[in-house]
Every structure is written in structure tokens, then in C-alpha cells.
């Protein structure tokens, strides 16, 4: 497994465009990055992680504008709150438009999305495309914390790893597809804080 630096962003972009997976630090845990718009790359990820196919992936975007451009529907009542919330280690589940390319990729009518507060990830997404970023571990194992642990899990099936530090705490996941926000997973940001920000209706 070749270890890369965040300074190698051009090479990293090329690797992702070629349909490869890359182990990488994210704004939360160490993760596996890949093209969230490519069904074959998504299939590869599920195979490598031995992940339950019914377990959805989180997709990282650079901005609210970008996710809207890809057919993610932001309910008007949450728009101002989400603009204040992001970027942050909070994942929200939002509905997809009928035209969204993610419907074909994931066979779902909603998508778990996050806008990371991480300069490297922001630059990488802007250079490439929305990226999935599940934790770097086979399902049921502890998440890797660095490239050495990623190599132990995935050597021979994932060829690249970006070294860096992580928080070792997952994102908070909140479902916004219903009438009221529902906590799906406790994470680094308290649910009460998310609710407080989302309730912002000022213009």
C-alpha cells in the first residue's frame, strides 16, 4: 500500500478519477474515499469492506450548492439552519429528486450527506466529485486510525493511503426526511446542538 501526503492532491485526484479507493483521514474517522457517482466503485467498496448492501453510505459534498446541483432536496424549513450548521461533523439524511444521479447509484430515494470542515477534503471534492467516506475497516472490525492499520486490513485490495490525524469520533447522524429531525446515531456533535441550529428560520 503506497502512502501519500495531502500535498499529493493532483495525484490523489487522478487516482480517484481512475476508479480507485483510497484510505484517508476525514473530518471524523479514518475512512475510505471513492467516487460516489460511480456504481462500480460503490460495488467495489461494499465488497472490500464486506459491508451489508442494505447499509447506506455517507457522501461528502463541498457545499450546499453542490449537493443541490446533484439533486439532493433541502427542505426549506431547514435551509437556513443547514447553512449555519455546515461545514461540520454532522451527517443529515435528505430526500433525492427523481432526476438525482444518486438514485441510480444507490437505489434509494434519500441520501446521507455531510459537508466536511477540512481544507484538504474540500479541495479534493471540488477537484473531483462527491466522495463516499465510510470508516476504514471491514464491517464488524474497529476503524483503522492510520495507514499502518489500513494496510493490515486492506493491503492488496486498496493500493493507496493518505497519512494524517483524525478525531476518532464519528459524525452525528440526523434524519431530516420526516416531519421532525430524528437522531440516527450519536456522534461528536450533541443532537440538542444540531436541533438548536436547525431551528433557525431567519433569512
UniProtKB/TrEMBL annotation:
Localisation per UniProt entry: Cytoplasm
Catalytic reaction(s) noted: L-threonine + hydrogencarbonate + ATP = L-threonylcarbamoyladenylate + diphosphate + H2O
Keywords, alphabetical: ATP-binding, Cytoplasm, Nucleotide-binding, Nucleotidyltransferase, Transferase, tRNA processing
Catalytic EC class: transferase
One GO CC term on file: cytoplasm
InterPro entries: DHBP_synth_RibB-like_a/b_dom (IPR017945), Sua5-like_dom (IPR006070), TC-AMP_synthase_SUA5 (IPR050156)
An MF annotation (GO) of this entry: double-stranded RNA binding
YrdC-like domain ranges (all copies): 6-189
Domain of life: Bacteria
GO biological process, one term: regulation of translational fidelity
Pfam families reported in the protein's UniProt record: Sua5_yciO_yrdC
EC identifiers of the protein: 2.7.7.87
NCBIfam families given in the database record: L-threonylcarbamoyladenylate synthase
Family of this protein: Belongs to the SUA5 family.
PANTHER family assigned: SUA5, THREONYLCARBAMOYL-AMP SYNTHASE
Protein name: L-threonylcarbamoyladenylate synthase
Native organism: Desulfurobacterium thermolithotrophum (strain DSM 11699 / BSA)
